[in-house]
User: Fold this.
Amino acid sequence: MKSKKLHIEYNYDFTLLGLATSAREYKLAWHINSALGVRLIKQEELSVEFLNDREITISHFLFKTEYSTFRLLKNKSLAGAGKSGFLLAELAHFDYLIMINDDGGFFDPDGTLTALKKIPVVEYLASINIDKLKEKENLIFE
Assistant:
């Protein structure tokens, strides 16, 4: 029997930032709300299942407008499982990931990065090239 394969290419049309901080997530979300004039709201915990039957649960906050989405994702699983307990293990040095999908022009890229760097609890912030990530499929969820 002849088999067919379905090839799907995802569009990674969002900005990804890595953030290192010792602050708790609710405090970080409050600082981001103040700095950017947004209203991040705590969402239900997000369960991410991987192909090798591994599953992690992460905490996240969301701000959404009609054309823009701003997500604050905890990189480490709530029930830490060593190196495999990360959403993106290759970015284990980051405590949080920020995904910005901005089709409406709500966020100025340079202004957003500058404002986030000025937050006192942010120890390190970097823009991440999504194309160089091996685990970028882990960021596909709704």
Notes: The longest strand covers residues 68-74.
